[in-house]
Amino acid sequence: MRKLANSELERKNINEFKDAQKTPIIIILDDIRSLHNIGSVFRTSDAFLIEKIYLCGITATPPNKEIHKTALGATDTVTWEYQKEVLTVIDQLKAENISVFAIEQVENSIMLNEFEVEKEKKYALIFGNEVKGVSQQAIEKCDGVIEIPQLGTKHSLNISVSAGIVVWDLFKKFTVLEGN
Hints:
seven-stranded parallel sheet, alpha/beta, 180 residues
């Protein structure tokens, strides 16, 4: 085995990324404080061809030196939009027939490993504040809540880790449906 050089990875350029078929997932970041978390979610979104990111509330927006530090240029590839109110974004997406799910720990949540995607459906995933999580108001507007199973002593994961886990899981499930 030999480690591949960057030149061997056949990565897309910005135009190829923009033209590529996207994974039918939209990410909503609501009241995220950490600029590094925001940048990391952009980078994950680039890696899995995520359709769009909505930045809401106090979540900072590009251009920003600290976001760029972890995004490494993904703010130039992934489509994003700032909307002050997450509730407005939820209403807008639901009006477009997009299923909206919070990533949170609540009564009657669906465990991520049990969540099934539908081939012709598009999903929006809300990730909330690092301390307070997704607001109760947002949860009440969602079509459901997905929970990441956690078996240890801790009750939460870092937002960027949570986004990576959920996006990877849904990406895999969409890939299986497409037969790839």
